[in-house]
Amino acid sequence: MATIAEKDYAKPTPGNDKTLFTRRTSSLLGVQIAACGSYLPDQVVTNEQLDERYGCDPNWIVQRTGIRERRHCPDGMATSDMCIEASRQAIRSSGIDPQQIDLLVCGTFTPDYHCPSTACLVQDQLGLDCPAFDAAAACAGFMYALVTAAQFVATGNARYALAVGGDLNSRIVNPKDQRTFPLFGDGAGAVLITRGTPHQGLICYQLGSDGSGGPLLDRPAGGTKAPMTPEGLVAGEHFLRMDGRSVFKWAVRMLVDTIELVLSKSGMTVHDISQFVLHQANIRIINAAAEQLGIPQEKLFVNLDRYGNTSGGSIPIALDEAVRSGHIQSGDAVLMCGFGGGLTWGTGVFRW
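That's the Beta-ketoacyl-[acyl-carrier-protein] synthase III sequence above. Prediction below.
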């Protein structure tokens, strides 16, 4: 397991011109993703249905985002329920005894409760004997969970680790916000990580954050800084807010920078990557970055037209579908990148 650490700083992020984009990366080999699983609610919500209910323009949604439909959870279903089903799929696919799982990390920013953690609820329902905790990094949550779980396995402190990502976005975005509400959907995915060959795992990865850009994507009320009040509830201060234009510009620039960096440190090019599994936020973000990087469309795995932005669930859902459809095979180099609120991002080249 090798680590690369450099202080070659460049490229400011949007929150603060003095904030610098670090060039530090790391490597985490000797681990493998043994199985994947995912869960999407049955309820399909089309752009036309959003138009009927909230006056959202279906054509605008498709042209500006590439999203045609998304899934919404029914009343009574929570984030943990989706994560449980995705985890069960991964466990069944692996064929291992669940009692061998000795770690569970859940990436979510829509927990069932502030306390206990969603991970603990999932652990209990799966009947696992293991520590469990959440990683709150919004749309980069799964990448944070994946790297954290892989560290435990690589160091011998876990034999089988579940890395889960899931979010129930339809409950935290204001339906009256016609520019933000249509972007998001609900869903969860999970991967089971265990020891692999010396050549498997994260050839190179980067986790990053820029808290100065936090106000670009936030939920202003409901925490200890601004506890919820009746007035705040009426004003909708518990809902997600997003400066879409600024986030879009940051996301494209960050995608290009971090992917170029990770590829360079890996000694690889776009041609060496079998599949790019990028956070499914907006097709215009994905296409703009792909055009700058020279990524051919056939190497981009895209499902956001059917699911929208599922935040922490985005990458593991896409991984599961890519594996089941044969787009990812043993030995392939897969580049994953999650990015979002915080601001946070996580990018890695994973040898399957």
